[in-house]
Amino acid sequence: MVNLSIIIPHYNSSSSLKTLLQTIPNLKDIQTIVIDDNSNEKHKEELVNLKLNCGDKNIEFYNNDTSKKGAGACRNIGLKRASGKWLLFADSDDYFLEGFYKKVHHFFESANDIIFFAPTSIEIDTGKISDRHLTYSKLIENQIVNPSFKTEVFLRYCFYVPWTKLIRANLVCENNIMFDEVIASNDVMFSTKTGYHMKKFVVSQEVIYCVTRNKGSLTTTVSDKIYDARLNVFINQYKFLQENVSSEEFKALNLSGMGYISKSMNHGVRKTLKVYSKLKINNILVFNPKIFNPVWFFNKVIKIYLKNKKNKKYVKNSK
Asked: What residue stretches are annotated with the Glycosyltransferase 2-like domain (predicted)?
């Protein structure tokens, strides 16, 4: 009986995938599923070599043979192939920390639906701790240090990434939860729905997973298609939460389309007007009332400036 299925989408990152697979113990208890998203020939050849060198490891390789490209489609293929009682998700350029299996194994017989673990991240070029994990480690920390109605709401509905969470497979299957097969933000609705349906959960300070950041991993601009995909997912999430969670929970989330209005300005005035209209048609709050608080607004601007400055060396020019 397989207790744990680890689902890994892959695209043109065979070297880092090899590193990731080396961090997963060779146990019959673990089913590792790799789904290739139509990589180029070089990486496909490397995948063949990886497969040949796996020996008796319980690793399965599949191709994304659907008409949809992206990590969402790959993860859905993985879900259909998964046979474990529990699920973990990993990205092919990240890795698990030593001893992670012992930490997750501890919860295999528990009655929890999701176990949230604290993540970490690293800058590959310098070896220094990155900031990619901070948003999610803060959600963990808040729930542990000062648990409240609000910290639980944010944990349920703002922990967007699928990694560093041990998820009961039945929670996903019984509620027919899938990843959006879109080019961006494929994991938001998956995480929102698992957060909504989970009955019991645990938050752990144990760290099991490391997210990586490479130089040149960020682009200076976001294409219209990617922006639109993210906007559509936000609208879907907003409406799902508005229709399903309590009014107190929805109010605590303080959702608005202000961030999307701001980002739309990079695409021109006409785009901004279209986005504003789309948000209004969907009855979505466009501006956060806090914007009229000068202290809040100043702190927000400074935070964005510092983040952009820190990310500068990771930026590559898009073509």
From this structure: 5-135
